[in-house]
Amino acid sequence: MAPQRSAVTIAYEALATDDDGRVCKDISDEACRQRPQNFLRHAVSLGLSKAADGLSDPKLVLSWLMTHLGAPATLIGLLVPIREAGALLPQLFTAARIRAMAQRKWAWAAAAIGQGIGAAIILVAGLTLQGAAAGGVILAGLAVLALSRSVASVAYKDVLGKTVDKGERGTVTGVAATWSSMLVIGFALILILFSEMRAGLVLGALGLAAGAWVLAGLVFAGLAEDKGAQSGGANGWEAAIGNLRYLREDPQLTRFIVTRGLLTSIALAPPYLVLLASSAGGAALAGLGALVLASALAGLLSSYVWGRLADRSSRRVLIWTGLSGAGALILTLIFAALGLAESFWAMPLALFGVMIAHQGVRLGRSTYLVDMAPRDLRAVYTAIANTLIGVILLASGVFGALASLAGAGTTLALFALMAAAAAWVARGLKEVSDG
Fold first, then answer.
1. 397: closest CA among 42, 83, 153?
2. What gap in Å lies between CA 13 and CA 8, rounded to an integer?
3. What is the arithmetic mean of pLDDT over 191-212?
4. Alpha helices in 131-285 (DSSP H)
5. pTM (predicted TM-score)
6. Mean predicted lDDT score pLDDT of the chain
7. Which of 103, 129, 141, 357 has its CA 20 to 30 Å from the CA of residue 61?
8. Where are the domains of the chain?
């Protein structure tokens, strides 16, 4: 008589494996024995974090909240730069400290709780302050959130590589993105149906986000993680500059960063798409709920598929997302040229296509980096890539501002060229997946 399988094992096999009894390829024997519970802990904790991201999205939710509270436009304009730069730029300087930890799950767990604290600060500002004071405190809370996220980002890929086997890493991130997107879709629908209560709903969502991050940290802390190498634990400028030598020593890392840098065009495009719709008199994208819904639906319908494809070939996913992103942006320009930008369906459809490509970029780049990096250098490679992408995003913000002088259509055309170029550069990446 076969031994009775636990609910955890059944859920894991339903979500992750194509066959029973698969031999682990890239993790220790102990991690292999714990892979069902580790897989589900990743899916739950990362999903909670992604749901909290959607509930507190700076581009949509926080910008609306600051406008509602009467914060100056200059402060509202700092939301995305603080969020992106704060999450990416510090990583080159924190990687060595995280590397000195034998079990890096504690770094991610603490960072998740830190993000919860940042969201709580934003909530308090929304409840008690108005005007510039509210804007300043919200930016301070966002800075706490972003800095905590920078630690989580460095630690996560290393822990993922130690606790989830090659061939399942894209799947687990896809599962997390899929179920978290369902929660955010529910939030978007509530915003649409109860638009007169939007302020209270946004504040309630911030409270839920804070709690979700704290719970994510507690779940993640329960991972069965082997102790790892702790050498190279120096910190500061010397360690940061020293880590840059890997760009010279590993040309694939450099090519990956160039590919990812060009793919930032897809992430930067949505505001210009909204601007193009607004300039044409379209109202389809005007509501906060509609924006959140388009983004969440894209995540729900594509994340699991992108994750499974990334496990087969994350290199091909990077190529496909570059091409699909360029195609969606070109479709946007065609709609505008045909005078369809003000219709109720054209620009939402284009935004949906862009966000599907963006989901693929996020899953493809994460899976490729984990599979490509040497086991003991995953945290360092992640920090190098994320720090340089942070610099590129800052530069792209200036570039986008300059390009916007020529019009949203010109800017989107430029982004389409960048996305297509990313697909071409990605063709030169080595195949690192086993699919």
1. 83
2. 9
3. 91
4. 131-163, 169-193, 198-220, 237-243, 245-249, 251-268, 270-279
5. 0.73
6. 81
7. 357
8. 27-224+233-426
